[in-house]
Amino acid sequence: MIQDFVHVGIGVFDLEASVRFYTEVLGMQVDYRAQHQGDRISRVVDVQNAELNICVVRKGGMCLELIDYGNAGKKIRQYKDQDSPGLIHLAMKVSDVDGEYLRLKSMGYPFNSPPMVTRDNGPKICYFRGPDNVVVELYEVLEAPQQR
User: Fold this and answer.
1) Total-model pTM
2) Which residues contact 20 (CB under 8 A, 6 or more apart)?
3) Pick from 69, 76, 126, 77: which is nearest to 97 by CA?
4) Phi/psi-derived region of residue 71, left when phi > 0, alpha when psi is between -120 and 50, beta in every other case
5) For labelling alongside 65, which of 15, 45, 108, 144 has CA 20 to 30 A away?
């Protein structure tokens, strides 16, 4: 029986740049670092001669396992489209989506649009791209209108 969620693994090109993004920009905390190599890990991940440098970052109950397979010189074959099956974005709850939008935009992160409410009763959201073309959603819960 499945017991709980553990983490989401994200392949990265530059582990230290990604760690800086997730900690300094998104406010996550480093949980732990690890290195794995050898036949057993190569078989598990199905990558010959795998050498993984890993940093797990955490925010609340969410963990991301940032994995560098030594891909710094590797070219990206094709980025995943937002409407493709599989993992497409990470959503981060924020208290002020407009403020976060302005902060991150001033840092040069590309957004699809300004924050907006896309359905009745919210939330107010926007999407941007971080390192390794990972799409991040900023998600602000709107308070329900007061009844009179």
Assistant:
1) 0.81
2) none
3) 126
4) alpha
5) 108
Buried b (16+ CB within 10 A) or exposed e, 73-97: eeeeeeeeeeeeeeeeebebebeeb
Three-state secondary structure call for residue 13: coil
Write the pLDDT tens digit of every residue in 98-138.
999 999 999 999 999 999 998 888 899 999 999 888 889 99
Give the integer Cα–Cα distance in Å for 110 and 147: 38
For the segment 23-65, what is each residue's pLDDT rounded down to a tens digit?
Answer: 999 999 999 999 998 888 888 888 888 888 999 999 998 999 9
C-alpha to C-alpha distance for 22 and 100, rounded to whole angstroms: 14
